[in-house]
## 1
Amino acid sequence: MDRATVTEKIIAAKVKDGLRWADVAQQMGLSKEYATAALLGQMKLTADQAAVAKRVFGLDDEETAWLQIVPYKGSLPTAVPTDPLIYRWYELVNVYGLTIKELIGEEFGDGIMSAIDFSMDITREPHANGDRVHVVMSGKFLPYKSY
Amino acid sequence: MDRATVTEKIIAAKVKDGLRWADVAQQMGLSKEYATAALLGQMKLTADQAAVAKRVFGLDDEETAWLQIVPYKGSLPTAVPTDPLIYRWYELVNVYGLTIKELIGEEFGDGIMSAIDFSMDITREPHANGDRVHVVMSGKFLPYKSY
Amino acid sequence: MDRATVTEKIIAAKVKDGLRWADVAQQMGLSKEYATAALLGQMKLTADQAAVAKRVFGLDDEETAWLQIVPYKGSLPTAVPTDPLIYRWYELVNVYGLTIKELIGEEFGDGIMSAIDFSMDITREPHANGDRVHVVMSGKFLPYKSY
Amino acid sequence: MDRATVTEKIIAAKVKDGLRWADVAQQMGLSKEYATAALLGQMKLTADQAAVAKRVFGLDDEETAWLQIVPYKGSLPTAVPTDPLIYRWYELVNVYGLTIKELIGEEFGDGIMSAIDFSMDITREPHANGDRVHVVMSGKFLPYKSY
Amino acid sequence: MDRATVTEKIIAAKVKDGLRWADVAQQMGLSKEYATAALLGQMKLTADQAAVAKRVFGLDDEETAWLQIVPYKGSLPTAVPTDPLIYRWYELVNVYGLTIKELIGEEFGDGIMSAIDFSMDITREPHANGDRVHVVMSGKFLPYKSY
Amino acid sequence: MDRATVTEKIIAAKVKDGLRWADVAQQMGLSKEYATAALLGQMKLTADQAAVAKRVFGLDDEETAWLQIVPYKGSLPTAVPTDPLIYRWYELVNVYGLTIKELIGEEFGDGIMSAIDFSMDITREPHANGDRVHVVMSGKFLPYKSY
Amino acid sequence: MDRATVTEKIIAAKVKDGLRWADVAQQMGLSKEYATAALLGQMKLTADQAAVAKRVFGLDDEETAWLQIVPYKGSLPTAVPTDPLIYRWYELVNVYGLTIKELIGEEFGDGIMSAIDFSMDITREPHANGDRVHVVMSGKFLPYKSY
Amino acid sequence: MDRATVTEKIIAAKVKDGLRWADVAQQMGLSKEYATAALLGQMKLTADQAAVAKRVFGLDDEETAWLQIVPYKGSLPTAVPTDPLIYRWYELVNVYGLTIKELIGEEFGDGIMSAIDFSMDITREPHANGDRVHVVMSGKFLPYKSY
Amino acid sequence: MDRATVTEKIIAAKVKDGLRWADVAQQMGLSKEYATAALLGQMKLTADQAAVAKRVFGLDDEETAWLQIVPYKGSLPTAVPTDPLIYRWYELVNVYGLTIKELIGEEFGDGIMSAIDFSMDITREPHANGDRVHVVMSGKFLPYKSY
Amino acid sequence: MDRATVTEKIIAAKVKDGLRWADVAQQMGLSKEYATAALLGQMKLTADQAAVAKRVFGLDDEETAWLQIVPYKGSLPTAVPTDPLIYRWYELVNVYGLTIKELIGEEFGDGIMSAIDFSMDITREPHANGDRVHVVMSGKFLPYKSY
């Protein structure tokens, strides 16, 4: 057994039982973004959060233990994602990559936007011409300091 | 001469004269994100917007014409970016990729968040523990329809 | 169980029973292009369409549930396809890629032809020197708008 | 001097003088698809067609000779195209690749749709919800024959 | 079950029973090149040819059905083959690639040598300094035609 | 100056003066295959053969010296060739790779067909349904010997 | 002119004049690690530090301006470095990668060792059997926090 | 059974029983870095050390024998690691690669820092602004000698 | 069953029973280099040699038959090997590649050192500063001949 | 100016003046292997050795200084070499890679054969069936030691 097996079982249970990530997240007291990432093997859960997952997805003790372990991260099977929805995000990084770097550099100086001290919120933005996906990301700016 | 030559000249002028993208964008009547992307060769400008660039960066007529052409997009020299700031964004797509797909799928059904009918706003979010980079993205949801 | 297992089972049933995609599509009330893509794990089906698949391919309830889930798309095992029929299409994109970009750009301006709001129809075109494959594709033009 | 240099000169002339591929194609007596591909270094021109290009783009004799040579084909700088418009076509091949193979196989048997005995026509398809890109492709079916 | 499973079974039976491709091909009334390619999952067989394979390799009905299906082609596990015998062929394409293109172009004009309307014959060529592998390949020339 | 510069100059002279590889080869007393490969930087020439090239292509002494040097071989810009004519050869290696290995192994035992002690002859094969490219290759079989 | 040109000029001046990175760093009031990285185009310098570089390496004003710009980072020409000294470091990451992850995870929990809030010190460690390279790295631990 | 199977079993036992690498290492009389690398299949153990592992992780005799075999090293599934913690180390090599080479070269001459005659120590460095990961690496300098 | 399965079984038997390649080779009347390569699936054995392997490793008849088959060669899981011992050999090819080519070319003319008509002997070379690995390789020079 | 420019100049001078690496090496008091590698930019020379190169190849002072700098190593343009002579060496590493690892492991234990404390000698081995390339390599064995 490894973490991938547990992830597969969680997804299969979700499909079979028609569960919703957002509902599970709520029961865990987590945002839907963090909870889903954790259940997909990208973040670790606390014992209490894992207990919710155990109940909801019908996991056994060993599987539940895996949810509390620091996982090897990376959720995509290829370096350039083939799935159109995920590719669009890759495309944004590719098309806007230098732009983002220039603008953060202009505002903050040399450094990065943290992908660790980070949160994300994805919501529906109603719009007359068709609803939009609204994403808010917040990452701490970490400056390079000379030494 | 090609588009890359013009981009290089624009950047060199910016470095030499200590210009700011945000200032140039304002003169063009554009967001700093769109304007910077355009000046870096990812978007096209209108004749009026190009005229601002011409003046600011000291371009000649032929160079200015290139700014109004549909460019071949893609701003990164490698498929996986090496620059740490840009890599963090790639990492977010990699770590959160399936999560994003699952949550958009759960809320909207099968489809994508458009990277074309799209806007982005990057701002400074003051914070006691260190300021944060705040990003808002809005992309139209485009559903797959059966036929 | 995952989506790939279901796809494999569908294909095996088709081979064993000598079924035709076009016939199954008709029973589903879908074009053969959309139906085949869906059965191969690239599109999702409605409950009614999945029920047809269940009956035709002898699937169980859990397998049928997988057909109604948003799938992770991408049907090829390598970035450059090795199969000659599919490679020819890749080759068209490679040889005509810039041409397509230039001509759509000339007619519509900067933007893309949607691969989401899209349909395709593949038919036999009788011809004295050997029949031809006739393909009609229709994708909504999506313009980049400045902001 | 090589073919790439001539292509670059043609594109630069087009940008500078505001020419349209469709107009040049008409003067050559060719479809806009074939003519553009040829001018971008993917097809060869006859002496007469090259003479038109010479006049329109201001080429010298040596450059004009290059237009009549069989070129090394392939118009994209990377195996997976980064430009969003061209990527969408790559995506179609990726998402629909197996579907296309299955349907052509079902209708014609084992073989390919030729990318050589081939033509393509790209036009604007007016539509109330936004105009569409309409593409017709016709390629001879070439069967594998046993021997 | 998929085509790869059947191929594996065929090879295992061949190893176990000490069969020869050339003998099987003869029983099928096919060249050894086509028959071997088909048995290795690269070409399809007719019902009669598949019946021979069924008997020789001890296949069941379902496995025999797979032999009559259009297969996804491509027999090598890596884009650049590691096996020395196959690599030498890759090397020939690499070293002589432009030469072949130039000479076919010089003789025939712009187009390709078909890999579909194609046959190959591999024989032993006795030679005092060591026998040679003699290969004859014949592929229809397919010209690009302007349109 | 390096070998690539000389190759480029040879090709440019050929285009400008409308030369034919086959004619130059004849003047050198070489097959068109070997001569073209050599002129394209894949084989070395003797002093006499290089003298012919010097005269025909208008090379100077230093350029002529480069033709007599052992070159770094490999004529293709990418591992998988994008040019359709050359790709078809790559495809043959991919589709028929295992078949070729099996048949040579069956006839000769473990070893390779030499790509060094090798010759190739490409000719036109007239045919009622369209002329064919006829290729004869002959490579010494080199057996692995145990030690 | 771009940053790479300036880097090249700095290295050429260093080779020509026999300068030492450690000496230049001292004049800048920086560690040799930070200063060298900056001079090689990986970090930015302050105006004062750049003024030292200007004097030492004989740069002009425009070149000096480039040293104060946030650079696009990444100093290696290939994803897997070919240089043996640098490869050994890549090898350490490859061989010890999971070990490092497990041990940091065991001590700190889920998170990373920052490569931004980071310093490195490389010194000579005298040793009877041959001196050793002694490296001390210190990076802030950044924990993933749930949200 | 192969080494990967044993590694997987060790990790699974650790997760199930909540073991700590540091504790197991202590029982083996090894540093936590060497012991963890060995248990993850990157180093070999002596019979005594393997006996500890046998007891702690509940291995059988055959599994224990595998721990004493020279393993095929390399612990990462991709050339560029996707896991953020490990990527930061890759990033350090990428960003500081040339710097490290220059500084070791300046101090020691041409050669490498050994990754074989090497040790590493990872500890917690308490810090008011957040604890840091403190890493000490020591590798023998190996000079290239002329011959 | 395929060749990889047999290789895996041989290695597992060797680990379990503490066998030595050199001893098995001696029983086969082969050099340790050839025998080991064969047992690892890179060379084929004669019936007599395979019979030794059968006895030593406890193989059944079918597994023994696989040892006498021409194998698909290539023993490394990645194009650039990650194992440090094997990587050093790759590094030698990379660092000394052009040197080897130049020196063989200078001594022999254009051609290759055969990797087929080849033998290798690896021995221990005692040395006061630490024993050395002594490797002797002998490969027939195969000249390119013009035709 | 960088090291590659100097290498290019050295090779061009060698071609133009018909020099031999072996002769230059002798004048430098070095083996032909080390000297050639150094002149091709893979090793550094002492001042005296560089002075020989200066005289022989007609270098100026700055170019001569570059020969005494620690170079960034790696002499091949692609990870898998396309040149047949060099590829054969790559093939040997690929085919015999695991064999080499097993045999060195069996004789010496876990460790590597150094590519730094290393020498190589390439000579002609006369043979009735055609002369052979005889290669002797000697690399210090470096053991992994536990810590």
## 2
Amino acid sequence: MTYCCGVLVRDGLVMIADTRTNAGLDNISTFRKLHVFEEPGHHVLAIACAGNLSVSQSVISLLHEGVEDHEAGERHQLRDARTMFQAAQLVGTAIRQVHRVNGDVMEQSSVNFDVSFLLGGQIAGGPLRLFMIYNAGNFIECTPDTPFLQIGEHKYGKPVLDRAVSYEMEIADALKTSLISMDSTMRSNLGVGLPIDVLVVCPDKLHSELKYRIEPGEPYFHDLRERWSAALRAAHTSIPRPPYMKDVRSLTRESAERQREET
Amino acid sequence: MTYCCGVLVRDGLVMIADTRTNAGLDNISTFRKLHVFEEPGHHVLAIACAGNLSVSQSVISLLHEGVEDHEAGERHQLRDARTMFQAAQLVGTAIRQVHRVNGDVMEQSSVNFDVSFLLGGQIAGGPLRLFMIYNAGNFIECTPDTPFLQIGEHKYGKPVLDRAVSYEMEIADALKTSLISMDSTMRSNLGVGLPIDVLVVCPDKLHSELKYRIEPGEPYFHDLRERWSAALRAAHTSIPRPPYMKDVRSLTRESAERQREET
């Protein structure tokens, strides 16, 4: 599995991705899923991948080497895209090119052609933007109303984002919230795991502010996980019990009664 | 969609189920998914259903009217089960009976024969138990190591349960935690909605301690949702920002600087 998340707030873009891949539960490896294309002063782009690793790696290679444009007889590299919209289109074209070569044979072998991407960043002359690209090459763009996009194992980490992320939050808080979302996902799905790759881009800087890998045992992330667990336990405790449970409480067995007397 | 959850702790069993059904987003209705079979002093059983409503309702009807046992030439009703294991087997048999009649034709119409059940409760002479029954009629039983089972849209509400539920927790806290899990699910999936049906059974009482429907606007559940949101916001705030973001913070744009000065 995979979990990748992009958060686009007024003050910048955060993208995070885990690195665990698995071909069955007995074949687990570490692969980078967050790929940065950067030429300071000109563009800073990042692509996070989920789904079949052979497909996503081929797409990344095509974006480096150039995607065929048969009509024009040209190859287009991601670095040549003049706008983020064109960059997203190029990722879509690369997906379709891989599908033409491998899609049918993969499906004949009962392997899903299943892949999705987050593309975030900025190209000189345009704004900082974030897209999610589906396996047919079509895509949607992140907007301030819901300033995050997710791919992969997205459900476990979504409640945290739904509640906490807003377009006006500071970039450091956006990163912190993304990491809490990653933590929730890692706890519930063993297919998502450390290390975690992190990228932060601030508007109009045209370079990455932060490219960082959180390794197992990294003190801040460890501390974040501990604090979040403790805070959730405290939140649980602070909520009163259901009023319609009063009768039941007096009926529960003696051991529970004793336990209550002790606390 | 559907979300149902059963929590089996030392002090009892909690089962909750939402009531929203949908045939497409433009066809949303309210149907009871938590069905109680109760004969005080003899048995108290509850079944929660997820998946295709026509299948789950047929299964419930068969459990009331009797499932054919062709070999013995008899019909077995759920109320006649002598152990919880036999009751779970009977639910499985009922699912397979519905599949024999409808499965092929449904699949020809591209409708998945997709259904799952939670069966919880106690029959005189045996312990309080909880099972999850799959669409092939096979089933697993809940044990103290992981004292909850979920069906339907289970991922959004699982992180809360993973962290908070333990076999030794009090029954009122088990209900509270189930409701928080339901709240997380409802926030992230509009296919899960109020009213919520609740059942609580305490061991060896052989009757339901609580059968309750949480209607929209019910003050306790409203208050629980508000408090949980506030507690999560506070938990977010209390966690320090990533230390590797310090440089970024000094680089963010002026508006953010001003905002920080104000706070």
## 3
Amino acid sequence: DTQRVAAETSRALDVFFVLLSGYLVFLMQAGFAMLTAGSVRSKNTKNVLLKNVLDACVGAIAYYLFGYAFAYGEDTSAVEFIGSGYYALSKGFGVTSNSGFNSFFFQWAFAATAATIVSGSVAERTSFYAYMAYAFFLTAFVYPVVSHWVWGGGFLATIFTVESATGPVDAGTIDFAGCSVVHMVGGFAGLTGAIVVGPRLGRFDSEGKVVPIPGHSATLATLGTFLLWFGWYGFNPGSALALSGGGYIVAERCAVTTTLAGATGGIVTLIVLKLRDHIFDLLACLNGILAGLVSITACCAFVHPYAAIFIGAMGALVYILATMVLLWCKVDDPLEAFPIHGAAGAWGALCPGLFNVREFQETAGLDPIGGDDYHGGLYGGGGRLFVANLASVAVIMVWTVGLVLPLFVLMRVLGILRISPEEEIIGNDVSKHGGVAYPIDATVAAEKQAAID
Amino acid sequence: DTQRVAAETSRALDVFFVLLSGYLVFLMQAGFAMLTAGSVRSKNTKNVLLKNVLDACVGAIAYYLFGYAFAYGEDTSAVEFIGSGYYALSKGFGVTSNSGFNSFFFQWAFAATAATIVSGSVAERTSFYAYMAYAFFLTAFVYPVVSHWVWGGGFLATIFTVESATGPVDAGTIDFAGCSVVHMVGGFAGLTGAIVVGPRLGRFDSEGKVVPIPGHSATLATLGTFLLWFGWYGFNPGSALALSGGGYIVAERCAVTTTLAGATGGIVTLIVLKLRDHIFDLLACLNGILAGLVSITACCAFVHPYAAIFIGAMGALVYILATMVLLWCKVDDPLEAFPIHGAAGAWGALCPGLFNVREFQETAGLDPIGGDDYHGGLYGGGGRLFVANLASVAVIMVWTVGLVLPLFVLMRVLGILRISPEEEIIGNDVSKHGGVAYPIDATVAAEKQAAID
Amino acid sequence: DTQRVAAETSRALDVFFVLLSGYLVFLMQAGFAMLTAGSVRSKNTKNVLLKNVLDACVGAIAYYLFGYAFAYGEDTSAVEFIGSGYYALSKGFGVTSNSGFNSFFFQWAFAATAATIVSGSVAERTSFYAYMAYAFFLTAFVYPVVSHWVWGGGFLATIFTVESATGPVDAGTIDFAGCSVVHMVGGFAGLTGAIVVGPRLGRFDSEGKVVPIPGHSATLATLGTFLLWFGWYGFNPGSALALSGGGYIVAERCAVTTTLAGATGGIVTLIVLKLRDHIFDLLACLNGILAGLVSITACCAFVHPYAAIFIGAMGALVYILATMVLLWCKVDDPLEAFPIHGAAGAWGALCPGLFNVREFQETAGLDPIGGDDYHGGLYGGGGRLFVANLASVAVIMVWTVGLVLPLFVLMRVLGILRISPEEEIIGNDVSKHGGVAYPIDATVAAEKQAAID
């Protein structure tokens, strides 16, 4: 009986850990909503908020119907490409045994995150129907398939066959919490969308110079960033997926490395932009924190704290550089979602191959060989993990762009991708959503209120 | 010793689960505060915020002094009507054994939720003293007694005596997380208040047509809804009250069904209102999500995911319909709290009798008979559970309205229910709270600031 | 094997509890950010937000490099003054065993809280460089040393040698969750800063009368307070540091006493200010809640619920009184951080010596004697605990002011402490941060937007 109690408590704790981490990841939706709202003009506030709300809603239905099956269903294909058979949570879920519902919940929250990233890149000028099309497509197919490749036993997880003490074993890409799987997918889909949909009116003047379009509330952007940071403690430590079997040691390492990388990303960005622009730039600092958090996401369970600081700092530089390149290419990404999630995401996705420590991989149950040659190259782990992750980065990039580009181009050809210039000038809120987010007659100061009433 | 460790860890995990769920439910206060603030005019912002703050504060004292005793104290009455003897946490709480404090904490957070719902229905024109009277009354008496009936061993939990394998057992209403106990009580109390206090000035024009009074910030309303959704993961899964004894399987089901019902509620509302009003209505979508979340609250632990989708969809339709009926009746409910919590709550309270699956009730320890005839009618469970829940809905409705109506009428007769028209026009904030929520000289743009200073 | 599972589950649960509590404490950063932003004028919003963001970021690096070592490193000094040897998490952290990372994470969140408190006191007129200097100094040295004295085996924890059944044992100050260690340090550092930097322009008129400078958003202040209250459930119950060994009983007591003290603080403040100023003052009520929460922080694990109500009520009165004294002394503390965290903090720090119940100390493993004479004086515990805590209050006050005063004076002498009057008039955001927080051309109503574009 003690054995039963002990086993059940261990299991219950693991389920609770996954659920709670999922709650925190879900709260990132609120974080993205506030960050996006604060970063756009008030005339499009309701529009971007509604898109964020629907990422969670449409994402839940899409992931329930198809996404979870594609990601974690049984893979009967020879090429380990896609799962199947669990559509609408229909199979493999017993009644009183572990029903797998905690896993679905956690993974749904991840899928919704990927979709949300895109909405920032195409904000303020993309049509609502276009948005709904790619949001469903992304959460139902594009993202789940990638997660299958890396986490669901797909081909990216089994690139190599390496020799171990017990004979040949499979080894492949390692992405602990979804730096490539979630952030790169979202970031590159966003980049594709931003290019095809084109810049906002007035973003570049007649001579091609950048015109700043500040968002309408730095406070909302800050609140959003704090909520995202908070949610990241579900995203990264939660990716241990269990506290048993040493998972709690993994989780606490993740909490520390995530903190240090995010903090460093913010500080480095603040300093670099102070040197470049001679202001202490709050919004850039917030984005730098996010870039640091993204950068550590793949390797958070496997690296030393000092390495986390370096990784976060580099992530911030990659973010800053990517921002400059985007503007130089006249690509308008209102939330800088590609520099943060795509560019810093690609950097972060390569970090396991450089910084992973063998012992920490072992603790996390991800030491395929038990030997000394499949971890971070800077720690004597050889180059194969780096190559595997580099291959993943390339494959995920090609897959995402290759699927999303035709969709956006098709919608553009059909004329349903972008709102009209008239609508863009008066704003989505008035043209599509029944009125502004902050109605003037609801917000005047009291002394004027009497006159109005 | 291992036995002791295993038992204590199991107990500690259960307590932690209840505490943490309570924290999340408490955060719903912040959610309600933001939703309410965003949904009223800025001239009453501080007023509604203060009311929300006091729901938590006054609720804590009221529930500590009386509420918890009425709800979970020993019931010595023959009719199983009310508990007693635990006033001010005075009895039955040992020192080193389970002190029951986690239970009090969790139940307080629920009581505060019920009170908060009401404040939305009567917002913008009700006097502060009237508010304090009903808030105390509701958390100290009205709500606790209902919760005693359903959860504390009261008469609604023991309506029937049914035959089981081991002889006759009691069976009654099943409301897993408080769809009738919390939401219906709040919703019907709010409806009563909204009717007695009357509509806001200008809500209906001289011909009786509805004049829209939009709230002052769609962003705050969205933030509030996300926080509420987040808190619902404490409300519904947390109502398992333990992770041991299979509670974690119950909790993960709740997380999934809650998600799907809320998501569906939002999508259905968005589509219906697009067809009706030709706009994508953010605020209605948010309320639709809440209606979906309310609808699943009674049966979240017992239904299939696809049923959750249906229940959430129906909840959204009930919400939309109730909104139209209210306006047709010239009842002004600024937060649409009755349509969401009262009407969709009544629908949700009936769902266990329709959709509950026997095996899931068994897992949750709520299978009174062990046979096949006391669960959802659509799953072969007979009609008795539906009848029991229908009786509960009627009893709770009569009880709530029957107690709250005299209170509101009395306050109206005494002239202390509603603020004066002058105060209503200039707003509560200036007349009662020392100034507006967003002082003009604190918020002007910088270029004008220099001139002012 | 069952023994191993049981032991590991217990350990995993403890780590999870600490991590999760740390997440909640981290979210207090968002709470402080919103509270501070809402309490200042909009022209300084980005400035105070950035300071809050950097508290977390700079605090993480400072605490990683030095703070944690000073606080919890090995203390080789004869006077038990400071720890050492764990700089940059370099020592004592094994690979697969408990790495101590959860402890670092939790303590970092505390350190960042102490720094944040100060930023409120000196808001709106202090230079950014000055801020960065004291933030680093406080999280790297001032606070960690204090925490070492009280929690890390330092001299304040071993003031007395008392007789126990098993011979003489050390006994000293008891501060369960950091009322003196965190709040008093932050509050007194803030007071020192507010005095040296001087009042904001226009805070006192030419005759020395107080001119109200209301903050720009009561909504943000309310949101911030709710987030802080929420985070306090990590701060206080989390300070049990483990759920095993009866820790869960301690945690649930903390949750209840924290709730009751905060709620009472809010209600008492509301009533007192209604009697004094004849308005229902939302912002004062929020600060009263915080004062109540601060007051219970030292003794939350050890007192009866009714005592928590008394302690919270007294905390509110201390807060109100301190506010009046500050203004009478012409000290300008925009967030009232000293009255809340310093003054109510000092009151709270003395409460264990008055209200602690012996059995509850025993449950929490803090009954040094096992006898009847080292707990709350009002419960027959003698006066030594009160004396020990009084000594702590004095020492911490002297230490904090003694270190922070020279720093602020030095910066003032060097002319780097305060921004110029011109900058203060146009606001930090325009002069330092590249523009206002709410750009006018991003926030105009839609009807005017067309004309602008």
